[in-house]
């Protein structure tokens, strides 16, 4: 089917010519789709406001020999605050860059799409602290991709009492006696409990939780190491900008 319609999120926009934009869409029906938005760089273009960063829209697409083109679009949610607030902008940019790197083109991933939408909403609406949304998104994206860390005890000996380190190579927690030559990030019992809550309850289960800065710091390194090991992604440019932002 050459013409098709789907709800989608704008992950990335790039200039393609003086008047056109090349847009990376994450569509509900077709997964990640690079698409050309003709005339979208013109101020009077009907597409201009629907192919802006982080927008959620309803897109009518046409699959041609060279490009998929956006023929029509209706804005569903603009997430305007994400483009006006610098910390929120880089947080949303980071989430979208992760998605662009892990998603395959034209492979629907409804669970990941719903997660991305919830995370952008949480950032835009200020429901949760910005960094908590980012850290939770990393873990929940790993879960959707099939890489949830094992957090119930040491994956080698079964020990239930810490201290523990999170080992990407082992797939979860290791006690110090089983660590051996493996690398790991030390996690407090509070951080482990927080990770378990995130994986079990999602973003909605964090609205009544107060998270100390020390736990966020542990999650920042632990989840990132786990993410890199399991996905193999490289050169996430927005992460450096994000980590230099104030909390």
Number of strands: 8
Q: How widely separated are the two ends?
A: 47 Å
Note the main sheet. Answer: 5 strands, mixed, barrel
Beta-strand percent range: 15-25%
Q: Structural class of the secondary structure composition?
A: alpha+beta
CATH architecture of the largest domain, by name, is Up-down Bundle
Overall pLDDT: 93
Tally of contiguous helical segments: 7
Total domain units: 2
The radius of gyration computed from the alpha-carbon positions, rounded to a whole number of angstroms, is 20 Å
CATH superfamily of the largest domain: Recombination protein O, C-terminal domain
Specify the CATH class of the largest domain: Mainly Alpha
Shape: elongated
| Strand line-up of the largest beta sheet | 1-2-3-5-4
Low-confidence stretches: none
Kindly describe this structure.
With 247 residues, this protein is of the alpha+beta class. The chain has two domains: 3-77, Beta Barrel (OB fold (Dihydrolipoamide Acetyltransferase, E2P)), CATH 2.40.50; 81-243, de novo design (two linked rop proteins). 37% of the residues lie in helices and 23% in strands. The protein has helices spanning 81-84, 86-102, 110-125, 130-145, 189-201, 213-231, 237-243, and strands spanning 3-15, 21-27, 31-37, 56-63, 68-77, 164-167, 172-175, 185-187. α2 packs antiparallel against α3, α2 (86-102) packs parallel to α4 (130-145) and α3 (110-125) packs antiparallel against α4 (130-145). The longest helix has 19 residues, at 213-231. The model has no long low-confidence stretch (mean pLDDT 93).
């Amino acid at each position: 089917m050459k013409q098709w319609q789907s709800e989608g999120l704008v992950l990335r926009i790039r200039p393609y010519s003086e008047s056109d934009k090349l847009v990376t869409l994450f569509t509900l029906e077709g997964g990640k789709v690079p698409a050309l938005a003709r005339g979208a760089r013109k101020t009077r273009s009907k597409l201009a406001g629907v192919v802006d960063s982080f927008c959620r829209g309803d897109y009518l697409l046409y699959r041609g020999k060279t490009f998929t083109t956006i023929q029509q679009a209706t804005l569903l949610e603009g997430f305007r605050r994400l483009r006006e607030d610098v910390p929120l902008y880089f947080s949303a940019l980071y989430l979208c860059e992760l998605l662009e790197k892990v998603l395959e083109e034209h492979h629907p991933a409804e669970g990941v799409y719903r997660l991305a939408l919830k995370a952008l909403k949480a950032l835009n609406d200020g429901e949760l602290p910005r960094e908590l949304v980012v850290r939770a998104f990393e873990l929940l994206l790993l879960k959707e991709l099939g890489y949830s860390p094992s957090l119930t005890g040491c994956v080698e000996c079964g020990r239930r009492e810490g201290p523990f380190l999170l080992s990407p190579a082992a797939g979860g927690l290791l006690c110090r006696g089983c660590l051996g030559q493996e690398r790991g990030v030390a996690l407090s019992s509070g951080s482990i409990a927080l990770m378990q809550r995130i994986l079990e309850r999602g973003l909605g289960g964090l609205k009544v939780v107060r998270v100390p800065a020390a736990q966020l710091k542990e999650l920042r390194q632990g989840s990132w190491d786990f993410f890199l090991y399991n996905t193999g992604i490289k050169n996430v440019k927005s992460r450096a900008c994000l980590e230099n932002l104030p909390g």
